[in-house]
Protein: Aerobic-type carbon monoxide dehydrogenase, large subunit CoxL/CutL-like protein
Organism: Polynucleobacter duraquae
Amino acid sequence: MIKLLSALIYINSAEKSRLKPSANYLGRSCERVEDVALLTGGGRYLDDLPLPIGTLYAAVVRSPIAHGKIISVDIEQALQIRGVRAILTLKDVQAWSNPLVVAVKTSMRQWVLASEYVRYVGEPIAVVIAESRALAEDGVERVGVNIQPLPALVDVDAALQDNSVILHEDIGSNCVSDRSFQYGDPDTAFQQAASVIEVDIRYPRNSCTPIETGGVIAQWREADSSYEVTSNFMGPFSLQVVMAAALKIPGTKLRHHVAPDSGGSFGVKQSVLPYIIMSCLASRKAGAPVKFIEDRLEHLQAATSATSRHTHLRAAVDGNGKILALDYDQIEDCGAYLRAPEPATLYRMHGCVTGPYQIQNLKIRNRVVLINKTPTGLVRGFGGPQVYYALERLIHKIAKTLGKTHQEIAALNYVQKDQFPYRAAAGALLDSGNYQQALKILEGSPEFRKILDRREQAKKEGRYYGIGISSIVEPSVSNMGYITTVLTKEQRAKAGPKNGAITSATVSIDPSGNISANIASAPAGQGHQTVISQLLADVFGVLPSQIQVNVDFDTAKDAWSIAAGNYSSRFAGAVAGTVFLAAEKLKARIADYAAQALQAKPEDLIFANENISVAGDETRRISFSRLCGNFHWSPGLIREALGPEAILALQETHFWSADVLEAPDEGDRINTSAAYGFAIDACGIEIDPETCSAKVDQYITVHDAGKILNPALADGQIYGAYAQAVGAALFEEFVYSSDGNFLSGTFADYRLPTASDICTPKIYHQESPSPFTPLGAKGIGEGNSMSTPVCIANAIADALDIEDIILPATPSRIHALLVKKGSLKLDKPSNQTSSMVSNADYPLKAQGEVRLQVLPESIFAVLLDPERLKNVIPGCESIRKTSISDGIQFDCIAVVRIGIAKARFVAKVNLTNIQDPDSFSLGGEGRGPLGMALGMGQVSLKNDGGTTVLKYDYQAQVSGKLAAIGSRLLEGAIRLVLDQLFRALAKEAGAKQEGLFKLLLSRFFTILGVGK
């Protein structure tokens, strides 16, 4: 036995000098191992994966309006298109699936296709399945949907009124949850306060718009009544039960694969959930695999967004600025339906709504309201931006009211270093930190001194320059039980306790000593493979290049739990930590065997330089790969050395959950996360009164995310969150008209920040390791999503000396603030030419003038003759004239092209206020599969020497995919369509045709919207 073991010992004293200590890769900025593949086209995204034979493609018929009753859905014409194989309808959905489960006890029923009513623009109505995506979209255009419009709700406060329209009649109210909480004795604190300071805050809807939209490949297997799915949903595990229940199958019959690479998510791809169910049912309907990929219009319009929130927040404050109590009243807009896991946005931050401050007296009222907008869901920061926008605006106001600085009020109220772990009033167990030290780092930085000097200089010169501060705690590794805080304790008792967040990981070693790790966390740019390679290289004393990290996933074969996935900044704290624990168990198994071979104690062994050696005598060592090979090639040696009970497998699967993640207690306290990082930011912003734009001049951010595993990757997470937060603060907002039409359907209307809009932040780190995670690490990927929007808002408020800051702080909003302040006059724009009263519900404007080589009387003759008018209207298939009380109505069917969209529309056009041949009012509406268009305008005709000068002034609004084209493109397209219409009118009336060059020049100026 000893001879056999000794044969493994590699002793060569001549090589002793070549041995090096362990490299300690973890904690260093090693290069990303993923980048070669990603930067050379070797990534494996969903669209790169091979498809099953016979795969068909899906396109979705969507609602063009925000609220209405479905009268009929006619699919017959669409089925006649060659290549269209099937159409999934509500009848199929109700036969093969159940409504989606929601977290709140309610009678609301949400199917993956609209049932009886549509409740938001873009809501799916039917799914066309065809041999190509193009053919499927042709089929969508041929599906006839008849919807009776109903009044829409787009404001949460209006939705709470007694006379409000009710979205879901079965519920009887638009408020689906109204819960109140009290911790400590806030009433007494408010009575004894020196002052009560309050803010009223509205946080807008926005999103994170990943470069890759959502996608699904689904296949129904008739033989065993199962579904197999591949998607780019990075966190399917927590919703696997929801999807299986909706599909009426056991969870084991839903096999889910996750694509190895993802083109971003930021939480938004949680919205793939209904598409997975929809695609599964489409596959069952068609009897073939089905692939669905969102286009950009669909993603912006109908995927998901962050919740908008109306918060009224009061603080009881003593004379020094110490906060004695807080009183939150939060009204959450969750869109038209509660889509799982909502209303989690409201409750993820519940335990830590007091932020980094010592505030033990607290009142909270949470109301969840449904309105006619896209259902909300996970977006980077997930509840944090909404909470901290209110809390840190309040800190700013307290400081201003008391004549102190923001940081003075913050420091006075911070949790102290010696108080950790600190139990917050609502239950969060803040694990570690030194907030005062982070503040000192910020205030001592040269960048902070620079913005102080710049503000002072700007004041002397009469310029608008402000400084903003914000402090936040960043939760990571969510407690699955936090969402149950929305339930009463009686409801929770009936449903059973829910808590924890199990993470799984598997580490294996092959016969050659090569190491692999399988993790249930699909990356989206965070560098999962790099960090795991660093970690395992340190544990086993090998090179990172010898590590293979597998991130693609199969729920039928790999280890996972309901909490698995890439969300909630859980990678560093939970996933990497669980890999470490699995590796340590495997290392201990190897060490037991190596100790026998080296005649040493396991605790005296060192794993380094691809060998296992004895501490203090590095000449006694074993090749790591050779020893691991024995577990595979000579298992008898293992049993002989360690006994018959020895574990032979060089594979370890480990499950971990933080012990501090408990269910909500009887007093509704909940520790919502296992770890809480800290960030304090400062920024200097200058306002240009000429352009009314806000420019971030300098940004400083100090982070404490516990143990930093890779500084470069940590900084990358900060840069990304910061860039997206600048967008949320200054540019990005999902805008809806008063009747629910979506007005942000392209990146021309939903503006993202560019590199020139973003200054590079200065980043500082301090490390306070968490006692509750295996590596002491905390999340860092969402902090600036929470801290930056309010930091910028505070800086704008400081620059303008105005408190009422609404995000995003666009030039138009800053202009309004400057007018309110009296710094600018509200002058009528010099280029205002419209003769009509502007209507905010008709955001598209078109004014122009056309000279036609024909008399006004001849033009009117054509207008009043439906047969001749049919020749004028582009794509007109039929037209019928009827008289109405104040004019004429034409009912027509036409194929119309607007910008990049073309569709068949059923339209009503009214000519009223007719003054033949001088003027008339033009109005009407058109409905089709791409949306709805409404318009009104004035047209005048003037005889000018035998020709007609026709002037038009038009306002319009569109919905559906038409709206998603974007207002800038649409306004140019409308001008062109009107120009073509009037010229065709003149031609039918007998006008001479213009020369080609003159005509093209005229069209060019028309598109630009300027006169010739």
